[in-house]
Amino acid sequence: IVQSYTMSGRAYEGEELGDDAIRARTADGQLVIIDVTALFRVLSDMAVDLHISWQDRYVRDFIRPGLRSFVRSQAARFNVDEINSEKRKAFEEALNDLTNAHCRGTGIEPLGILVRNITFSPEYASSVEEKMTAKQRIREAEYKALQMANLASGEGKQITIKARAQAQAIVDVAKAEAEAHVVKAKAEAEALVQIGQALDQRDNLLTYRYIDKLSPNIRAMLLPSNAPLILPMPQLGEGATQPQPASLPRAAQPEAVQPEAVQPAPEVRPPLVQPPQPQLAQDGAAQQIPVKAQ
After folding, report:
1. Beta strands in 123-250 (DSSP E)
2. What are 238's strand-pairing partners?
3. Cα distances (angstroms) measured from residue 192 to each of 107, 131, 180, 187, 200
4. Alpha carbons 244 and 287: distance in angstroms, whole number
5. Are 35 and 67 in contact (CB under 8 A)?
6. Strand (E) or helix (H) holding 110
7. Nearest 5°: CA angle at 31, between 60 and 75?
8. Could you report the per-residue pLDDT of 152-174, keeping only the tens digit for each?
9. Which of 47, 44, 69 is CA-nearest to residue 58?
10. Could you report the per-residue pLDDT of 177-235, keeping only the tens digit for each?
11. Is 75 helix (H, G, I), strand (E, B) or coil?
12. Can you tell me the distance from the alpha carbon of 19 to that of 83, in angstroms, rounded to the nearest whole number?
């Protein structure tokens, strides 16, 4: 039959009423409070010998004091941080080894020593809590710093990508404008070539445009016989007839034909330009060139 014996700091939880937990000192001098349960059974072939030696006191007078002594001796091997963390399993194994050796040959077979709970003094518990709180704050600060670093890195990448996109857009706009200027220049050059070709074929057009814009009040003027171009005009206006060239003596100087008086227009007109004096032709006659009335 498997039996158990518990020593606990909680009332009505162990075999003894009240606080029955084991108090021990660690290697660094800290007070620890340990709850322990021992599992065991009595070997049937040695039950008589056990009864002769201990009667019914084998639990209270043999198992209990031995286990409490083992807990105190083994707790002194570990620091307070170790006994409740990574070294807790080693602490339990040491208790089991000592209990097995203690019960060997007595008719009691230990089945296991269980460390149920380990608590600390109020002072140390407060310091541990403050330490854990500080560590938690450090971890939170590190986490926030990591988040800020990741955020800054992401924003930096976004700024870099945006700057590259803006720079590429500026380059694209500049290229497009340059190409547009090139196309415009080519078009203007081709237009100038075509205009030049047209003017080469119809060079009298410039003279006509010049005379046409010279003055709106001039209907006719005399040009020398060696003028580069004579423009034939069918009529000067409604009901007007084309003037005929007059024969003048060789020695006589031709008189310039004055422009026909025209009532000035309401708006301001540019000043009249006096046409150049014609030269005598070989036969002494001057050519009279009609000009289209405006």
Report:
1. 220-223
2. none
3. 126, 90, 18, 9, 12
4. 9
5. no
6. strand 108-120
7. 60
8. 888 778 888 888 888 888 888 88
9. 47
10. 888 888 888 888 888 887 777 767 665 666 666 666 665 666 665 655 555 544 455 44
11. helix
12. 21
